[in-house]
Amino acid sequence: MYAEQAQPPRHSYSRSRNGRSSPSDRDYGSASRSDHSNARESSPEGRLGGSLETLPDATPSIPYWSAKRHLTCGNPTPDPPWSSKPIPWRGSPPGRIRTAHAALVLCLNIDVDPPDIIKTNPCAVLECWVDPHTMPSHKALEAIGSNLHHQFEGLSAKVGYKPILDPSQDDLKRFCQTSRRQAKEEAVLFYYNGHGVPKPTASGELWCFNRDYTQYIPVSLQELQGWLGSPCVYIWDCSAAGHLLNNFNLFAERRDHEVNMMHGGYAEGTQPLMNSIQLAACAANEQLPSCPELPADVFTSCLTSPIDIALRYYLMTHQLPNHVTADMVLQLPGDLKDRRTPLGELNWIFTAITDTIAWTTFSREIFTRLYRCDLLIASLFRNFLLAERIMKDHHCTPHTYPSLPPTNTHPLWATWDLAVDTCLRQLPDLLAKSGPNLDVVGAPTPQTQTAIARPGRVGGRQNTSTATKNGEQPYQYVRNRFFQDQLTAFEVWISRGGSALTKKGPMSLPPAGDRYNGVPETVNQQNGVEQHLVPRKPPDQLPIVLQVLLSQPHRLRALILLSQFVDLGPWAVHLVLTIGIFPYISKLLQAPSLDLRPVLIFIWARILAVDSTVQVDLINTQGYRYFAGVLGARSDDVLPNSSEHKAMCSFILAAISRDYPLGQQACWSERVFDNCYERLEEPDFLLRQWTALCIAQMWDANDEIKVYGVDRGTQDKLIALLSDDATEVRAAALYALGTFLGASGSEFPDRLGGGGTGTMYQLEERVHFRMEVAVATGAMLAIKDDASPMCRKELLVVISCLVKEWRGYFVVCAWLYWEEDRKWRASSSGSYQSHFHDEDVTNQAISEWLDGFNDDEMLREENRVLLSSFFTIFVVLLDLSVDAYQEVATNAQTIVDYIMALLLESPFTRLESSSLNTPPTVPIDRKGSPQMGGTRTRVPSLQTSSSTHLPPPSPGVRPSVSRNDTMNTLTSGVSNTLRRTSSFANALKSLAGGIAFPSSEDGRASPAVTSASTNLHDVSRPPSPNLNFAQYTSPYSRPPTPQGASSSRHPPSPKFSSHDLPEPPHAPMDFLPCDVMEALMEEDMERLRSRRRASGHPRRHHGHGHGGHHRDHHSSIPSPNGSTFSIDSTSSSVILGLGTGAGIRDVLPLKSAYFDWCMEYFKEPQMRQAEPDEPGSVAYNYQVWRQQRNEQIQSETLRHSATAEDRRWDRPVATLQANGHPLTMAFHSYDQHLVVANETDMISVWDWSQRKRLNYFCNGNPRGTSITSLHIINEDVGGIIVTASAEGTIRLYRNYDPTLEQGPVQMVSAFRGLNEVIQLRQGSGVITDWKQSSGHLLVGGDSRIIRSWDAQTESPSLDLDTGSESPVTAIVSDSLSDQTFIASFADGVVKVFDRRLDEDDAIVRTYSEHTSWVQNVRWHPTARGQLLSASLDGQVKLWDLRGSDFPVETIDLLPDGLSAFDVHSASAVFGVSDFGN
């Protein structure tokens, strides 16, 4: 069964394989991930009436850059602000009560009626199903007490019950005090039967006896409260019981108030009296019913023997079929504890129905407190619902505290009556034909159990006619279909729109503060209107599904339905946990059944994704072994969709290890680490991703596991994963390397980690050092140019760990860079007045430092390579600090500023030759360095005056400032460059402007571009990503703001002038730069030695405790807050001993949220289609409309394409007045949209049919550069704008059409399309071509290579050498083939490339007939194998790939020069323009 229902191919509860998109990429499937194993759809091999390059492919194209990672960049989706904290499903103090002892007080005084009670004749006489008049009074009292004891034991056998029969006041006091002592801090149940004493008084007194039973003695409730204390559960079974309930609350409230006033509250472990629970048989003005058909203690009977009283009540209110008599009902066979017998089945159904009535009527807090905290209390309140139903029919209203809404008219009582009727209809045959063993259809034959004979009890009497006639088969009892029908109803609810959202109302999930408090709402944006939508009201059958788990025949079906329900989201998981699913689902982990494995893994993954605290339970119950066994299974045949279920197990084991050292050790003992290691190369990317994340959590702050991982070479295998095709796998490998190097994988944001790779006691000191540097360097080289900003963010976490532990080396690199940069600036400005640049300080310092290693050439070379590695990483940090994606730049700025702050506090500032304290030198060329070809970062003036119109002063170099004066408004020239090289020599020579750093109070903390004139478009900020959570952290503590000071969001930027610069903090000292270098490096080594000294304690965790409430304080490693450089500057052997930087904040390492983002996958629906694929949804209907419209446009274009060649194209359609000079533009193939980029960095979106500008935003490319290429991708489903600017950066934007009301324009992604951009006086910038059918982006331009980017993997797939020194001027792909494309060059050459060939042979044709710059090249739209090219001299040439290297035709159109040329995509028509028009 399960193989068909719950283990379908991947489309069931498996992940969505392709990212989805809707109009203009306005929505996305929450579960979308890239599929890196499926083959892409190929483009059509034949033309349909000619080339339709810009029209859709015959098969639906894949929307690229539309997966969840592109909208979140690895940031967890925040909960909506109106969602409240879920109710603790385990129950929480002070409401949680566990019953440990019970005092059963019976004041019957048999044969003596109380004076205030007048009994009818006949009247009810049974007490605990015993007629006291059939035996001597003392025997009757003992029998009643014994029966009452047995009845309570049937509810919960673990509680100690003490019957107290007709007690005196002293006996009552003694027994109560004894019960409290025995219960300790747990609850005491006090049951009071006052049928033989007067009714309670209005002042709150109950009655007992004197020693001789000659007087009734009143006992005040205040005395009783003093004897029993708190917490307690009270049952008042007497007339006028409401007096006791009301007065108890009055006295309890008064006493609690006194304790709070006098003692400030109760002591720890003691609960207020108001937390006590009460059940009263009737109100204060009511008397117990005396109906002779009911027992005298009908309230007690309902609470303790519900099936007996329920069947009697049914006999009283219904006409019995088939001559069923009351005596026959009393002989109903079976055992209450055996669900396979008729009596046990009825009890099972009764439990399910009463649970469901409570669940659907009471609030979640009340339900959790009364029905899921204590077995005895749950049974009493479950049975109380029956008491309310029966007694209200006899004009008696039971009450409780806390008070409950009425349930006596609940529709499910009719279902109970039907179940009783179904059972009783079989009773005559059952009694007549039952043998010694009762046969039950659909269930194994139970063994006959000896029942305790209790007079008056149903099932208490054995059937006297147990023998059947010779040859007659015993009657087979037909099981009730109640549970099957309820499961069917539950299934219908799920399959018929259970996942749909609805507006608030009677059919919706009640909001916070109501019955299902704490379930988060969902905001759905349709047609631009935010509608607060909530899940539907959950099905009433949810508690019944829990009961079905107890039945083996229906267990699998119930689990499948339960898995489908929890798949709806976290709110559904909270509901099933509140229902009480956890104990049952935990026990099923011990079941050997293989068919339960897939569904159990699925459910547990959902539970751990929502509530990680169950990790403690899985360790205590050994449940983790279940998942470790599945992960380690060698055979994939045992489990369908094996790799996916193993990925779920990896997540479960990772969640168990997270923040829980005992969980790490438990998983380690089950070889989970080895199994994850062996599956890092599995074909399924989800399994690779989660095995890497499981390794990350296992060795997080666990030195022993890190040592083992290094011995196995795990870090090398993770570095190899950095070239994986799946972006999520690359990020997961980086996350694992981050925790390996000391980053924290904790869910608690205040735990930043630290401590590097730990002790590594098995390695030598230098080997340990080289390993840490090699891991960070390997990660940096593999990821620094990755197209995914999510991976670049994770890389920064890895680098921050290295900076944290080896900050001395980075300070040295920062100083080297600073001095080389200042020397270049001085030479650029022609100013050599400064004595700082008379000699090569840096080269001399490095040379003297290397000379200190004497003649050990190997050691010299090793240290030179190590310093080179650190310098390369530092240059990459500078590069990332001006990354086009704001989150990446912000995180990198935090690291760079930390290093620069340490540099400004270091002994380098005290060197006589240091330039750290001098004013910055501005190069003559304000547009940037010659090496960068005039490109530099767009920055405004740092002057705050709005009247400034002069060119802004260079904010490039950060001045030296003291700790007390510095804030995060410091600017650093070395952190604001666009360096795209890892060369040790060349990286020092390029500098580009500055950028103002954001305020630490700015929640979105992207590079803060402030403007002197806010109405100027050229200083506006580019669009922000959808989730921009990166927050800049200053290395300095912010001083208190004086009263009356401005509290603006962005503090004013400082005004820099030479006289404003503070004096150096210390006088120059007589030591050399190489001495400072050696001192800082030696202090880093001392820090390493301190870590390694912890090897005496090989297992170092975050801390001790359980449940994740712990952290590693690294007590063996001094806190960096105390001393940033030296461990102990006074006793250090370092020659300087000048460990400074005590005021530097400990802001590193950075903390990643990638694990939480990945965990959201297990919170999102996997068993249903995404919204755009759901027929009938708004998104689906919109896409259907778009597809139909696109097909119509396509057919009309084909129809007109032939006639268009013979028509004049001279009718203007629209005239648009754009800001600036339009430089490049792109038409949308289907929407009437035109995207125009001007000569700077502004992009405008126009509706050309309406002559209306729809949007206008900034691209953010550096000043002095322009947007040189523009495309619209994903046109079938909306569109994403792709821009390429001259500095080599590719940027993507969504939500550009405001008519769809999707929100503001958002940056989807940004990456460096070309690393090496050759700066030319007249270059082409960056030229791109997009191929929608294959998802390839070709990037060329002012470079010697053409790079092909794979949009699916977000990585470069191919680099082809152009074989030319001239820039690429145009690139165009073959619309019919993914393998060939054409490129034209500035020297007049046109080349045809074939991607399938080796790099040396990739150029298959070369055409050199043009004598000037080739402006554009295009494929012929109708003639296959032909292409057209046009050069600036006005010549248009037609080429044939099958012909010679000479053009087929040359057309000399514009002898005075050609400025633009393009070919229509569907018709043999081209257009040209000259420089005059």
Could you explain how this protein is built, in words?
This protein is an alpha+beta fold and 1477 residues long. It is built from 38 helices and 35 strands. It has a six-stranded mixed sheet, sandwiched between helices. Strands 14-15-16-17 form a four-stranded antiparallel sheet, with no helix packed on it. Strand 15 and strand 16 (1242-1247) form a beta hairpin. 51% of the residues are buried. Residues 1-59, 439-455, 460-468, 512-531, 832-838, 923-1019, 1039-1065 and 1096-1140 have low confidence and may be disordered.
Task: List its traits.
13% strand; 1477 residues; alpha+beta; disordered N terminus; four-stranded antiparallel β-sheet; six-stranded mixed β-sheet
